[in-house]
Amino acid sequence: FAVHAQTAISVVPKPVSVEQRDGKPFMLDANTKVVVNVGNPELEVAEYLHEYLRKAFGDVKPIVDKKPNAKYNMANSIIFVGVSDKILGKEGYQLNVLPDRIIIQANENAGFFYAVQTLFQLTESDFLSVDRKDKGSYSVPQCKIVDYPRFAYRGKHLDVARHFFTVEQVKRYIDLLAFHKLNVFHFHLTDDQGWRIEIKRYPRLQTVASKRRATIIGHYTDNDARNPNYDNVEHSGYYTQEQIRDIVNYAAKRQITVIPEIEMPGHALAALAAYPSLGCKDTNYEVACTWGVFDQVFCTKDETIEFLKNVLDEVADLFPSPYIHIGGDECPKTRWQHCPECQKQIREHGLKDEYELQSYFMQQMEEHLEKKHKKVIAWDEILEGGIKGDVTVMSWQGEKGGIDAARSGHNAIMAPAAYLYFDYYQAEADNEPLAIGGYTPLKKVYHYEPVPKELLPEERKYIIGVQANTWTEYLPDFDKVLYMDYPRTAALSETAWTQKENKDYKDFLNRLEHLLKCYDAMQVNYSRSHYAISADVFYNSDTRQVELKLNTPAENSRVVYTLDGSEPDGNSKVFSDKIIIDSTTLVSACAIRDGEIISPVFRSVYNLNKATGRKYVLEHPNPQYSGSTANALTDGMKGSQKSFDKWVGTLGHDYNLVLDLERQEEFSHISISFLDGVGSWIFLPTEVSFYYSDDGLEWNLIPPQDCTIDRQGQIQTYNVNTEPLRARYIKVYARTVRQCPEGHPGYGYDAHCFADEIIVK
Question: Which family does it belong to (predicted)?
Answer without folding.
Answer: Belongs to the glycosyl hydrolase 20 family.
